[in-house]
Amino acid sequence: MKYLAIADAEAFISKALQSQKVPAADAGTIANLMVQSDLVGADGHGIFRLPAYLKRIQAGGVNLKPNIHIEREQGATALINGDNALGHLVMDKAVQLAIEKVKQHSVCWIGSHYGNHSGAASVYVRKIAEQGYIGIYMAVGNANHMAPWGGIDLLLSTNPIAIAVPAGDGPMVLLDIATTVAAYGKVKVAAQKGETIPDDWMIDRQGKPITDPKKSAEGSLLPIGGYKGYGLAVMIGLLAGALNNAAVGKGTIDFNAHHDLLTNTGQTIIAVDPSAFGDQEAFIGRVIALVEDLKNSATLPGVKAVRVPGEGSAKTMAERNRMGIPVSPELLNALNTCAQECGITALDL
């Protein structure tokens, strides 16, 4: 495995985007946010996605000169119209607005529509928690890969949810999950590497496990927790899609298959100020106390330690800030194909 320095990864992404007429400032913002997905180990959402983003740009599937604006606003709520911009730009705007509004109202709810894929959910709630607030994110994924519980029609996406809670000087408590057993990005990474996938990730139309990720189009991702995960996916679809007048259900466009079509991706950001409910330092103390109780609790045989949500990504972030982003031979080849097409210098790892 080769490693790509963080600064080099950002520069490469930015140059590739600029070669396709993405404005320099926007390219820099997108590159930074994409690499933040890689930093926390969300390898299916970072630089891995560059080839797909470039295909959408080249096909005219995104607006490179968008007017990202507040379409509706009422008190602590707002709806952002992304004007079909590259998704990272829409969510960057949503996070900025959420931080402004939570300072004014102690809590806020920001919805968005006409966006696009924007990488790992944790990237955005982390920004809110770094400011001392609780961050919550929900989204309708950019392609339907899950059938309703007991059905075979693909009507739901991975519909992720992320929650970040500040924990003082320690790693924030951060949950970032798809409502499917595995995010579809993991399936795509496995396909690129020629690996198999676990037999509890996907089933075919007869209900039998799919272990070859290249056959993923023949079946459905499985929800977490059986029917409960299916129900959660439905509710997130309503809150991030239907509520925002964004695509959901049959209206969802597969951005992997249709690079030129408008996806109208819906996303939601919620921010909460803990000080609205009492002393903030006391709250942080309670968070830390729970984390310590969990980590110091007794373990089952063979288990070395109990982990807390966000602990793994914090460790990965520290390692990758030091070593860089791991790049498989298959990913390196895909990126250098992009470099050739964009007329920029290839990566030499």
Major β-sheet strand ordering? 2-3-4-11-5-6-7
Q: What's the CATH class label of the largest domain?
A: Alpha Beta
- Please outline the major beta sheet: 7 strands, mixed
CATH architecture term of the largest domain: 2-Layer Sandwich
What's the rounded overall pLDDT mean?
96
Structural class label? alpha+beta
Q: Helix segment count?
A: 10
The proportion of strand residues reads 15-25%
Give the overall shape. globular
Per CATH, the superfamily of the largest domain is Malate/L-lactate/L-sulpholactate dehydrogenase, NADPH binding domain
Oligomer state equals: single chain
What value does the Rg take, in angstroms? 20 Å
Q: Any idea of the CATH topology of the largest domain?
A: Ribosomal Protein S8, Chain: A, domain 1
Low-pLDDT parts are none
Helix content: 25-40%
Please tally the β strands and state the result: 12
**How do the SSEs run, as a string of H and E?**
EHHHEEHEHEEEHEEEHEHHEH
Distance from first to last alpha carbon = 10 Å
Number of domains: 2
Provide structural commentary.
- The structure is a single chain.
- The protein has helices at 6-19, 24-39, 50-58, 87-105, 122-129, 184-193, 227-242, 280-295, 311-323, 329-342; strands at residues 2-4, 69-74, 77-81, 107-115, 134-139, 161-165, 173-177, 202-204, 209-210, 219-221, 265-272, 325-327.
- With 349 residues, the chain is α+β, with helices and mostly antiparallel strands.
- It has two domains: 1-58 and 326-349, Malate/L-lactate/L-sulpholactate dehydrogenase, four-helix barrel (Hypothetical Oxidoreductase Yiak, Chain: A, domain 1), CATH 1.10.1530; 66-180 and 223-309, 2-Layer Sandwich (Ribosomal Protein S8, Chain: A, domain 1).
- Helix 1 (6-19) packs across helix 2.
- The mean pLDDT is 96.
